[in-house]
Amino acid sequence: MDHPFRSAAVGGFNRQDVLDYLEKTAAENAQKQQELEKQLEQQKQELEQLRRRSGELEEREAIFSRERESMSRELEQTKGVLQDIRQREKAQSEELTQLRQERDRLRARVAALEPDAAAYAAVKDRTAGMELQAHCRAHAVQEQADQQARQVRRQMEQWLRQVQQEYEQLRSQVESTVSHAADELSKAGRCLDQLNQMLGEQEVALEAVSQEYLDSDPEKVPAPVPLEEA
Questions:
Q1: pTM confidence score
Q2: Exposed/middle/buried for 12, CB within 10 Å: 0-12, 13-18, 19+?
Q3: In the chain, which residues have pLDDT < 50?
Q4: Can you tell me the distance from the alpha carbon of 218 to that of 82, in angstroms, rounded to the nearest whole number?
């Protein structure tokens, strides 16, 4: 061991040199111990902050999980609504088909009445009133059928446009919500990974500081060389 001790007149080292050396060593050890204690306290504070941050992130992850489950339920409900819309659309289509068939039957009936009207025209004096009445009735029936068909067609077109708009809006909202939730969950996962890495590094640093602190314990300082009177 290097030391600034002067040799005594009779064996050993100078007593005052040894005392000065011990005081200096004790002061340096005390200062080093204070610095290590300060570093240890800072490491503990940082570790506590990281643990609190970890708890906050875990809580946010739980919230995101609940929101994802809620959105999944809403998506299932949306699927049910879309299925109802398709069923209504199918029913409206079937109704429109029936109306068209009824219109065709009415037109066929009108066409069937036209030869009778021509035959009645041959005996105009006797059948003029019946011909006019049949013609007017057939014309009214045809006009009514055409009017009903046009009205049903307009209603169907309006309803289909409305359903299409509602479906597009709903699909856009669902896609936006699912994308946002997936992005937030991905961010939370990356934050947790970074936090776990930081906690590991801080624990390693804390162990090193603690070990250095223990190694600097004054009780472990080697005993000084026996003193001899100068």
A1: 0.28
A2: middle
A3: 1, 5, 8-10, 221, 223-230
A4: 78
